[in-house]
Amino acid sequence: MGSGKGRTAPDELRPAGSKISPGEDRVLSEMGVPLKAGEKVFGIIDAKSKRSNAFSENDFHLFKVVGEHLAAIIENVRSEERYRAVVEGALDGVMVLSEDDRVTYVNDRLAEILGYSKDELSGMDLRYCLDEESKRAMADRKGKRQRGEGVSPQVELNVFRKDRKIRNVEVSSTVIKDSQGNTNTVAFVKDVTEKRRMEERLLQAEKLRAVGEMAGGVAHDFNNALAIILGNTQLLLNTVQDEESKRSLKAIENEAQESAQTVRRLLEFTRKGGYEDLSQIDLNAVIKEAVEITKSKWKDEVQEKGLHIGMILNLENMPPVAGVASDLREVIASMIINAVEAMPEGGRVEMRTFEREGACIQISDSGWEWRKRSKRRSSSLSLRPSPSPIRGLD
What's the CA gap between 46 and 316, in Å, rounded? Predict the structure, then answer.
């Protein structure tokens, strides 16, 4: 506080570089108060008078109190502007609800989620945007709060957009009271619609995978059983003489073959590009089983025509391989049948196993023009040792 008679205000209350000059602009008294936010000075409130000794100690005290309140108001406005900028730029929706669930504030993101403008949402009853299940959940939460019971801060609701399309949202809320004692709910809203759809798709895929695994296991068991039924039926067809029995056996053979095709399609559907159900295979044993199953084709039928096909097996001691025995047996049986059909005048089929960067099966036959060319055809299967699966045809 200062006056024209030499009384001066404390230095920290005077603007930087200012001086009191009794003859300058006839300012004879002056006092100033800094505006502070914490310890930081961001302004000064200043009072001047053309009268000497114009300000008393009470005036200075009142002026100081006014300065402190003014500084607090300015800082609050600045803080509110900063917070508003943060809220408006938030990636999640933000809203404030009154006690009767009417919207008093929303940010841009929530308006985008609901498809309304901010003006349209202002004053709207939030329950208008909820489905029946979500309305009951909101009412239940509100009742528990009123009874003083604990309520989870998070809840998942289904909301209708302006176009009445439904969205799944996750709401985190808290109840606060303003300076007038009114109760308001501040809620943060996250749109989880796409997340829920992805979870449903993953759950459905998991269910299908489980069904596929179960169906694959059942199909393998049926496939093994059908191979035995088919093989023995074909053997019986070449031993029985009774025509009625042959017709019955033929019917069994046809049904078994059709069932085998169905099982094969089921296995292809459940496998989807990978060998998931591999087991240890004795390669030589599988070959012998395939030879036995096809015996009626390469021996009995050929002998009835007065021809001969020799089956030569050169099987070395082989390590176990990883694979599906029924599939491998089916492949080998098909190759034997193809070889037999390629030798209408008889010949021979040679099968051998050996190791060459893995387990190998080689199948050779004398072919269509064996007498002309004295040359045999050959095919081979290459398999890696366990635990690697079958590599394929070479």
Answer: 108
Round the average pLDDT of the chain to a whole number and report it. 78
Contact present, 49 and 7 (Cβ < 8 Å): no
* pTM attached to this predicted model: 0.41
- Encoded amino acid at 335, one letter: M
The amino acid that residue 373 corresponds to is R
Distance (Å, whole) CA 285 – CA 248: 31
Q: CA triplet 229, 231, 236: central angle to 5 degrees?
A: 90
DSSP per-residue codes, 343-377? -TT-EEEEEEEEESSSEEEEEEE--TTHHHH---E
How far apart (Å, rounded) are the C-alpha atoms in residues 89 and 81?
12
**CA 340, CA 347: separation in Å to the nearest integer?**
8
CA 326 – CA 224 distance, rounded (Å): 6
Residue 343 neighbours by CB distance under 10 Å: 20
Residues 264-315 pLDDT 10s: 777 776 665 445 567 888 999 999 988 888 888 888 888 888 889 999 999 9
- Asked whether the CA dihedral 247, 248, 251, 257 is positive or negative, the reply is negative
Burial tier of 6 (Cβ tally within 10 Å: 0-12, 13-18, 19+): exposed
Contact 294, 339 (CB under 8 A): no
